[in-house]
Design brief:
The longest helix is centred in the middle third of the chain and has 45 residues. α5 packs across α6. The strands form 2 sheets. Strands 2, 3, 4, 5, 8 and 9 form a 6-stranded mixed sheet that branches. This protein is α+β, with helices and mostly antiparallel strands and 470 residues long.
């Protein structure tokens, strides 16, 4: 018996070693993908599962032959064999799908669909009849067709450049591994019908060469993707610094007014914009604008508004003319985007204010324990080149609190799909009516964060300007 076990062990030692390596590589690939959690690492997940399936199959049979597995596990080996045999083609195709483009991608998606149908049907037949090879011929024919197409694509440079998302140097590595794997598969499948005995190490060795070539290519693709993402993140950080630099560093120090501004972009850069235009010690203009969309395109237009503001400063005391000129400057540059804006001119000395807006949420005024919504809207920027903007005159009283904001304040939704809206906003303003503007701003942002479900991040840029007349 000892001699028999030694013979089996010598015969299976290569399978045990290779199976262990494949299993460890599979776990390592999946763990790497789980830690990185980026879209480009899915190729590592499928490669890891593929390697683990090959390793499990090799180890299970070797340990079973050595009688090292418990009896209950011996019972499930046929089921495990059947599942792996039918589904390994689907997993392999999913791995290649992450590297493919154009018609090759469509071909692989077809192979996955057909392979999955054959696999599910084959496993079901095995469960009900005990026959594990009823559909195996069709599965093998599909595998041969798939492998033939892949060998041709990776071996022909013009095809690999067209159908694979890889640089030419990594294409050569993948081509070498695929050709070795294909030759091993052909040799193994031809030798069995002809009665030749294939050494145990041939199949694992062919897969090892392919596995490491494919793994090298997958890692190169992941690293390239990460370098690209790091470059983009670095550029976005610079863009955010630039955008912050075009915003006012501090509110103007005016007699009779207390001012606080809050700016919370949804992403690294935002489409919201605000600016202050001091006229003298008692008067200043306040502009808040909101560009449709988010991210870099909206941020570029927000930067354009800053540049345009330099040419309309002379109109600071005429809200209608200031908005009209801004629209005229921007209307030819906005393409398919639009901009809403609101402009408030406060004159603390003469106790009056002028307000006009371009499709913007209303100006809010807290006075004598009630919240008033003041609207004076013309068309949003970008509709026509020369619209008119009506102006609303407001008389100021001590204790007035004015709030200019973008719709990022009003539109957050709770778990029931309800907007934060005017009612919640009024409740927060009422509760904080005796607090300074900075405290009201902080409390309002906290209430909005609590209103949103915990799993939902900020969905829009937020800009809030609060002005107290003292």
């Amino acid at each position: 018996m000892d001699n028999h076990l030694q013979t089996i062990l010598r015969d299976r030692v290569a399978d045990i070693i290779f199976g262990t390596v494949f299993l460890l590589v599979g776990f390592a690939a999946c763990a790497t993908a789980a830690m990185r959690r980026r879209r480009g690492v899915r190729v590592l997940i499928w490669l890891g599962i593929w390697s683990a399936m090959f390793g499990v199959e090799s180890l299970v049979h070797s340990l079973a032959d050595l009688a090292l597995l418990p009896s209950w596990f011996q019972v499930i080996i046929p089921y495990l064999d059947t599942v792996i045999s039918y589904l390994v083609l689907v997993v392999a195709s999913l791995a290649f799908l992450e590297l493919s483009l154009d018609k090759l991608r469509v071909w692989l998606q077809t192979v996955i669909s057909v392979g999955l149908a054959i696999g599910v049907a084959g496993i079901a037949i095995f469960l009900f009849t005990g026959s594990d090879d009823k559909l195996m011929l069709y599965n093998n024919l599909l595998a041969v067709c798939s492998l033939s197409v892949l060998v041709i694509v990776v071996a022909v440079p013009s095809l690999s450049r067209k159908f694979l998302v890889l640089p030419s140097q990594t294409n050569r590595v993948l081509a070498f591994g695929t050709l070795v794997f294909a030759m091993e598969a052909v040799y193994t499948n031809l030798s069995r019908p002809l009665g030749y005995r294939t050494p145990h190490f041939v199949s694992p060795l062919g897969f090892t060469v392919f596995l490491f070539s494919f793994g090298y290519v997958a890692l190169q693709m992941v690293f390239t993707s990460e370098r690209r993402l790091l470059s983009i993140e670095s550029e976005l950080a610079i863009a955010r610094e630039i955008q912050n630099s075009i915003l006012p560093s501090a509110p103007p120090d005016l007699d009779g007014l207390r001012i606080h501004a809050t700016y919370r972009p949804m992403t690294a850069v935002a489409g919201d914009f605000y600016d202050f235009i001091p006229v003298d010690q008692h008067r200043a203009g306040f502009l808040v604008a909101d560009v449709s969309g988010h991210g870099v395109p909206a941020a570029l237009i927000a930067a354009m508004i800053k540049v345009a503001m330099q040419s309309v400063v002379s109109c600071a005391q005429d809200p209608s003319e200031l908005l009209r000129r801004l629209n005229h400057i921007l209307s030819g540059q906005l393409r398919d985007q639009f901009v809403t804006a609101a402009y408030l001119l406060l004159d603390a000395e003469n106790r009056r204010a002028l307000y006009s807006a371009a499709g913007h949420p209303p100006l809010l005024r807290w006075r004598q324990d009630s919240l008033e919504r003041i609207e004076s809207n013309g068309l949003v920027f970008g509709i026509t080149p020369d619209p008119s903007y009506p102006v609303r005159e407001i008389l100021l009283q001590s204790g007035d609190r004015f709030i200019l904001c973008t719709d990022g304040i009003l539109e957050p939704e709770n778990a029931a799909g309800e907007f934060f809206g005017d009612r919640q906003l009024e409740q927060v303003i009422r509760a904080q009516r005796a607090c300074p503007p900075s405290q009201l701003s902080q409390q309002l942002l906290s209430e909005i964060a609590l209103w949103r479900p915990a799993s939902v991040t900020q969905q829009d840029d937020i800009t809030l300007v609060i002005i107290d007349v003292v």
